[in-house]
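A quick aside before the break. I want you to see a complete sequence-to-structure record at least once, exactly as it would be stored in a machine-readable document. Don't worry about memorizing anything.
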Amino acid sequence: MTFQGILASAFLVLSLAAVALVVAMHGTPKPALTGFTLYITQTSYPSNGQPIYTATKVRRQKSDGSWKLETTYANGRIEVGYGEPGRGVFALDQKNQKLEYLSGSSVRPLADIDWRTQAGFTGEETILGYKTYRIHSGNEGNYVDSYMCPDLQGYPLRIVTGNGRSKTIFEVTQVVLGEPKFESSPNLPISTERFEEKTKP
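That is the input. The structure line, written in tokens, reads:
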């Protein structure tokens, strides 16, 4: 993965972590009515040159907040991740037969946050027929714009990360409502190496 790709992934993790923090501060959410499946494209836009398609993602999320994310990169590499409320977010290391612990996972993303009162709120936009709220954060030339969708358990329908020279867009292209079917994370040993490395002072 290129440096820009690593930076974009880091921004995505930080953005979603910030959302999780907001969720934790607002208590227990109302039960979601249904689960959903999202089809997502990831595209990089260099400051000079044509857009570069980098990955497609399929996120299956149940009404209890648990999810499975499958990412297929342009070179054919596939990554699988899992989120289990109250247990954590994990990446599957198929080669070494283990789960990499990446972060904590809130009880469930909120559907009833008033995003208009949150720090960084800059406006509303309709995406695929869903109302979203744009939340902006950034420092030192780097920024993240997340378009949060209350109707889909608070999941963002678009995330834009940039550094002033290039940007990467994660865009939901299709929403399929209904409880998805998938198995929970496999019963494998859990490693915290990546989490510890990321959180070193």
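Two observations worth writing down. Confidence is low (pLDDT under 50) at residues 1-29. The CA atoms of residues 17 and 103 lie 8 Å apart. We'll return to this after the break.
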